[in-house]
Amino acid sequence: MTTLAPEDPQRRQEEQAAKVLKDLFGSKVDALVRGGVKISVITKPETVIQDIVDRLAVTTSPWADIIGPCYTSGSLQRELGVERGAISKAVKERRALRLPTADGDNLYPAFQVRNHRLVPGLNKVLAVLQTGIDDPWTWAQWLNTPLTDDNGQDLPRAIDLLAAGELDAVLTEARHDAAAWAA
Predict the structure, then answer these.
(1) How far apart are CA 173 and CA 47, in angstroms?
(2) What is d(CA 117, CA 81) in angstroms, rounded to the nearest whole number?
(3) Positive/negative CA dihedral, 117, 123, 125, 131
(4) Model pTM greater than 0.70?
(5) CA distance 62 to 180
(6) Which of 18, 24, 81, 82 is the Cys-Cys partner for 86 at CB 3.0 to 4.6 Å?
(7) SS in 3 state form for the chain?
(8) Residue 107: phi, psi to the nearest 5?
(9) Terminal alpha carbon distance of the chain
(10) Do residues 56 and 130 touch, judged by C-beta distance below 8 A?
């Protein structure tokens, strides 16, 4: 009859920590262990996981509140019922507004789409805004910022006026603000 040695909790903890770290960091942990580092010296698995979670960049950008929801290229293609080339062409012609992100992604503000179509006249407005500043994020903010009159009453956003066919009024405001930005 063979008797098993009682399980060593310290060893079990080391194995769990090693497994968690190995799953996360693979060969780097193997190299540490081969170099003589005891994983249990690092910490318990729960603490390792919590430390990793605590370090995640879980921040919200103020731009999300300003710009609102955005499409990815693929989701915009589906919304408009077009191919990728049509999106690229619309961006090049400034009929669509593309926002490049710091991590290399491209976003397309949802406010520029109404009834599965890009808002007409956007190209003319963006061309004017570009004369003041060449920054799509600023243009998006300008188009989507809620406005109020002198009495605090809500006014339509520039993109809403544009969607309603008020191109001339939007262009007048765009010229004014672009001139101020360029000054």
Answers:
(1) 55
(2) 9
(3) positive
(4) no
(5) 24
(6) 82
(7) CCCCCCCCHHHHHHHHHHHHHHHHHCHHHHHHHHCCCCHHHHCCHHHHHHHHHHHCCCCCCHHHHHHCCEECHHHHHHHHCCCHHHHHHHHHCCCCCCEECCCCCEEEEHHHEECCEECCCHHHHHHHHHCCCCCHHHHHHHHHCCEECCCCCEECCHHHHHHCCCHHHHHHHHHHHHHHHHC
(8) -120, 155
(9) 92
(10) no
80-135 pLDDT, tens per residue?
A: 999 999 999 999 999 999 999 988 999 999 999 999 999 999 999 999 999 999 99
Residue with tokens 């992100």: 101
What residue type is assigned to position 15 of the chain?
E
Dist. CA 92–CA 70, nearest whole Å: 18
